Amino acid sequence: MMMIMEMGICMWVFVLMTISVVLMVLRYVLKNANWWLYESHLGMKQYSLPPGDLGWPFIGNMWSFLKAFKTNDPESFISSYVSRYGKTGIYKAYMFGSPSVIVTTPEGSRKVLTDDDNFALGWPRSTIELIGKKSFIGISTEEHKRLRRLTSASINGLEPLSLYLTFIESIVKSSLEKWATMGKIEFLTQVRKLTFKIIVHIFLGAESEGVMESLEREYTALNLGVRAMRINVPGFAFHKAFKARKNLVAIFQSVVTERRKQRKEKLSIKAKDMLDALVDVEDENGRKLTDEEIIDVMIMYLNAGHESSGHLMMWTTLILQKHPEYFQKAKAEQEEILKRRPPTQNGLTLQEIRQMQFLSKVIDETMRFVTFSPMTFREAKSDVNINGYIIPKGWKVLVWYRAVHQDPEVYPNPKIFDPSRFDIARKAGEFLPFGAGTRLCPGNDLAKLEITVFTHHFLLNYKLEQLNPKCPMMYLPHPRPTDKCLARVHKCSNAST
């Protein structure tokens, strides 16, 4: 009997030891799977890769990224690399389904963003599928230059945008008046609706009212999936976003078809808008844009053209409200502009916009402080050497804007809001709210103009009462309070006209 018991115990010990060995081997295999897949074939070059690790198969380093960005300390993701591997400014990782290199310094960022010979766009497949294969993020550098040249004239530079200044100011004033009578509102939701109206008006003109509500609903779903994992299963953000993409394509196709019909039959008597320009434009070889190109360009422009400016409007207003000294200084600048205005003048002019020097610094500091987009994506066309490290051909390169904007060696005390940081011109690569190089966001001037006009009128006439000042933050897809800045807008008794 005793012998049987001893044999049973020995068997269980053997089974447990076997399971332990199997688990250890399995862990070793899983831990090194990405190395076998992506590094082992590099030969000696693997020893020149940046420090870091590629994490687990398929998942890579995404769990630690998502975990950090779901806390109040999104910087902890990069900080973990610094603490483990030192402040090298460049690290290897497995992100968004690809072996990647993360760049965190101004010098490295400038190199990657401006070197078109060695770096192409490298957005994740999921993002390209949602925004469009024929949009700026899905086409080659050569095609991008052509398409940008054909499409950006109407929204690039303050001079062209001055044509929209009267409309922007009008809708800003009417929106603020309305919000002041509504009581409790989601301030972010309202400013996003405002910026959406502006960008849709620029593209679709008088036709925009009929499709505004349906477009806005689909874009909200689209944005939630742009940086989500590509899981096309009901219940996941990407699946909802992909359905929204299909609905947007259907809406825009009907609009483009009708517009082509009007142009062909010469029925259009309204002022020419951006869609007309896209339908009519042709390159030096007489080639016009296809429906697919026009639709993808519109999806991209309308998305980028209201998301960033809407969020940054909210943050500029909110931050100024929390810093009375900057609020008063910015307000005094706006009041001085009104004092110098001729009595016969109605509304803002481009010259007055250029005189708002302190407000411009406030907006720039807001863009640094908040960092609307945490990173951008490139792909190495060939093996590239940065700071003595090799970025292999085909690897993704993530330019980590948040790391640059929150680097205490670049911006001392980066968690403190200080517009005087922009009393001096920043060095190349230090300030990247809209990227850099030939892929610089084409809507950057429109975004800053919208924020400037909005803040001008807010400073002169309104106050914001945030109802949950200690509301938790969320950082994906963009930084914002979880309650979308629940607030009341109050019109001041001494409001300027």
Automatic annotation (TrEMBL):
Keywords: Heme, Iron, Membrane, Metal-binding, Monooxygenase, Oxidoreductase, Transmembrane, Transmembrane helix. It is a single-pass membrane protein. Signal peptide: none annotated. Heme binds at residue 441. Gene3D superfamilies: Cytochrome P450. One of its GO terms (cellular component) is membrane. Its cofactor is heme. Catalyzes three successive oxidations of ent-kaurenoic acid giving gibberellin 12 (GA12), a key step in gibberellins (GAs) biosynthesis. GAs, which are involved many processes, including stem elongation, play a central role in plant development. Belongs to the cytochrome P450 family. This is Ent-kaurenoic acid oxidase. It comes from Lupinus angustifolius. The lineage of its organism: Eukaryota, Viridiplantae, Streptophyta, Embryophyta, Tracheophyta.
